[in-house]
Amino acid sequence: MTRLKDVRIAKLRLNNPLCLAPLLGVNCIAFRLMCHDYGAALVFSPMIHSAGLVKADDAGRASMLEFVKEERPLAIQLIGRDPQVMVESLQYIEPFCDTVDLNFGCPDKDILGQKMGAYFSKHPEQMTRVISAVAGATDKPVTAKIRIGWDSQSLNHVAAAKIVEDAGAAAVVVHGRTTKQGYSGRANWTAIRQVKEKVNIPVIGNGDIWSADDAKRMLDTTKCDMAMAGRGAMGNPYLFRQCVSLIMEGKALPDQTTEQKREMLLEFIRLYGKVQPVKRFTELRQHAMWFCTGAKGAASKRLEISRAGSKEELVRIVKKEFSLKG
Ligand SMILES: Cc1cc2nc3c(=O)[nH]c(=O)nc-3n(C[C@H](O)[C@H](O)[C@H](O)COP(=O)(O)O)c2cc1C
Separation of 174 CA from ligand 1 center, angstroms? Predict the structure, then answer.
């Protein structure tokens, strides 16, 4: 059975066990707000490069810190490796966030080359300096997002999670894939359960939540404290409503009809226009394409949307395309 108790990350109390993963290039303000609205108890920002934040001028820094108070509870994620720089960057994010998450899982080549992100999956002991410095410098709960190892021959998730706990983190996020896997293959939920069995801080499980059933199964089988949805939520904030309904009330909600998807997308377009300080049409159009997933004739809808040149044209296309059968 899923446990229905409140979830706590140190002093932060959350009203359900569902959160939106950090997604670079996806989690704009409007998307985070909408995921909250549809039920995510906590949303994560995309990673912010701590050295970039510290070095930036005021305008550059403002562009890296697009946050609004309505989107709280919010976790802001930092990536870096120099504890001093990471501590220095805290002052810029603290006014906006409820928790600080540290990225030890990004498999991007450039990031690995800078010995950041998933580089630490090969050298988990090096996380200690970073986590303890950041946790010692802020009142906000500090969490760490890790992978389960560098490759399938060197799984080290339990040892890494213990390092995270011992260094003073308030929770650990476990993405159940190795660095070598990137985003492919199945996420290893057994590894998430093994971490849960061995650490005393809350465990947030991540990987392959595509439906409410998946979220419930992850919570039930791994006993993790929260389930984090990534790609399954792209273009589909409604996933959180389905998850909350199933997990908190035991009620399975049907998938949205194409008409309901159209309304959700139009709502997103309105919200984007209202809350994004800098409106990037290509970003809005890309979201609209993601929102086609699961709709009838998604491929042709996407193609039409990709041709839109303005917001007005986009709205016209969405209204027309989502009213067509098939
Ligand atoms: C487009 C994209 C951007 C991502 N950006 C980040 C990021 O900024 N920080 C991070 O820790 N993980 C990032 N991830 C990884 C996700 O947070 C998550 O761990 C991964 O997608 C696995 O979850 P899923 O199987 O539910 O998608 C990203 C993944 C994708 C697909």
Answer: 12
pLDDT, mean of each 10-residue run, the chain (326 residues)? 72 97 98 98 98 98 96 98 98 98 98 98 98 98 98 98 98 98 98 98 98 98 98 98 97 95 97 95 98 92 96 96 72
The Cα–Cα gap between 144 and 310 comes to 39
The DSSP 8-state label assigned to residue 155 in this structure reads B
3-state helix, strand, coil in the chain (%, to 5): 50, 15, 35
DSSP 149: B
Q: Which two tokens stand for residue 164?
A: 């995270």
Q: Is the bond into 73 cis (omega within 30 degrees of 0)?
A: yes
Regarding the beta carbon of 174 and ligand 1, being less than 6 Å apart is answered no
Pocket test for ligand 1, best of 172, 183, 293 (most atoms within 8 A of CB): 183
What SS3 state is found at 294? coil
pTM of the model: 0.97
In short, whether 95's Cβ falls inside 6 Å of ligand 1 is no
Task: Look at residues 225, 183, 158, 292 and name the one whose alpha carbon lies nearest to residue 2.
Answer: 225
State which H helix or E strand residue 78 sits in.
Answer: strand 74-79
